[in-house]
Amino acid sequence: MTAKTVRLHPHDPIAVAKQTLPAGTPLPEYGGLRTVDDIPALHKVAIRDITAGSPIRKYDQLIGVATTDIPAGAHVHTHNCAATAATADYEPCADRRPVEPLPPERRARFLGYPRPDGRVGTRNYIGVLATVNCAATVVRRIAAAAQATLDGGHWPGIDGVVAFVHPYGCGMSGNDESFELLRRTLAGYCAHPNLAAVLVVGLGCEVMQIERLLGESGLADERRHRHLVIQDSGGTPGAIEQGRRIVEDWFDGVNALERRPVGAEHLILGLQCGGSDALSGVTANPALGRAVDLLVQHGGTAVLSETPEIYGAEHLLIRRAAEPAVAEKLIARLHWWEDYVAKFGGTLDNNPSPGNKQGGLTTILEKSLGAQAKAGTTPLNAVYEYAETIRAKGLVFMDSPGYDPVSATGQIAGGANLIAFTTGRGSAFGSKPVPTLKLASNSELYRRMPDDMDINCGCIFDGECTLEDCGQRIFEALLRVASGERTASERLGYGDEEFNPWRIGAVY
After folding, report:
1. Engineering a disulfide at 457: which of 221, 256, 284, 397 sits with its beta carbon 3.0 to 4.6 angstroms away?
2. Any domain includes 89
3. Domain that holds residue 429
4. In terms of domains, do 354 and 487 share one?
5. Element at 508 (helix H, strand E)
């Protein structure tokens, strides 16, 4: 069939243009209909008359209301479609369908680094972490000096020495939500299974004191965690030299660690999407959702986040909650976000970026419906606050902003040892110490940015593969990456600048 559009549900009054459709283009799939406007590729076209105030649906879900009469054949976008309030007609647990994981002997396996706490790493890095912005320069120089030694030696089992720096750690209260968010984030990185050893560096007078960070987080393993204070180490030159020696003393032991076969139940997959377009919710996100269903079947965990980007689609997750308490916690986080953005004169519909809109997405409701497709179909088993340690299996949710580096940082702090990132516009992203698999929603992007993308999910839209085929490919790629295969973002060197803890609250 030579259809020029895709209609995602028989009840939808709109369809998605497969290519640019000049005004007057016939649409034989809808009888004698012709376009009355120029319709950009991947944008929406009305396939029947829509009166002002009427709901506009996609995937048979509400994405907005018509702000004016829209004739059949017209372009449907921000000029005539606006977001409406997200539904509050929740039915917790109504669509819960329990999943029984495969027995251990039938689960997929990968080659990982077992750690003493029972978790498994997919990479073998050494980290140098700053407690405060004042230590950032020293941390970077320690990591650079140690990396230079690593590059000139014979330690092929070490993936690298990576610096984790940030603008925070002082000018803050030591007893508020902002402090706790940062403490959880730093502690989560210190304990992360992809970091074989971590040196923590502080200035000495900051609010985020090293002793408190390590003590409250239970990080007492001297073999894996060392620390130094710049003010007690001879200042900048002395701290750099002392830090370099500490890191290099770890080289032989970390290099000796070996990958071993382990079950897929040890995988915690962070789900991200950025630079989304109208195909993200049609190809890449639902294909990743198929891979998530497979991962859960094999005993693993997937972490959906970006709370502002489930707004308008949260009812679908609430209906899948494993128990009412899980649904109630998710609803509470959404209410928190409504209050939070209102303090700054914003709404959650401020979220779609200019690039999202250029790619065909009109409202946050439309964006969220596509974004939540990454989560597959299994029950929602837990809801975590930002950077909390993830302990539940199956599909879980972590509260975070929609800004990808901040969201991924929280997932990694919670224990994610893989990231899968879908994009339609072409996000440039990586996430040391965790590998990021990049999934293109359309073939044009895959051709335009071939060195940045790992898998082309545009084959679904092109009719060259099915969602199930693509989901299986993603799952198999995740296992290979977990076993050491490098992703496109790793080959390009991404990940040194993407550590970005969430900061809220006053700066003193």
Report:
1. 284
2. no
3. 261-491
4. yes
5. none
Q: Are residues 309 and 446 in the same domain?
A: yes
Do 13 and 126 belong together in one domain? no
Cα dihedral across residues 141, 145, 151, 157: positive or negative: negative
The SS3 call for residue 50 is strand
Residue with tokens 């959702």: 289
Question: Residue 98: inside a domain, yes or no?
Answer: no
Dist CA 426 CA 349 (whole Å): 22
- The total domain count for the chain is 3
In terms of Cβ atoms closer than 10 Å to its own Cβ (0-12, 13-18, 19+), residue 49 is middle
Long-range CB pairs of 246-250 (<8 Å, 24+ gap) are 246/199, 247/126, 247/128, 247/142, 247/143, 247/146, 247/161, 247/197, 247/199, 248/146, 248/149, 250/126, 250/196, 250/197
Task: Give Dmax (Cα) for the chain.
Answer: 81
Under DSSP, the state recorded for 204 is: S
pLDDT tens digits along 251-310: 999 999 999 999 999 999 999 999 998 899 999 999 999 999 999 999 999 999 999 999
Quick: pLDDT tens for 200-225. Answer: 999 999 999 999 998 888 887 778 99
Indicate whether 429 and 481 sit together in one domain.
yes
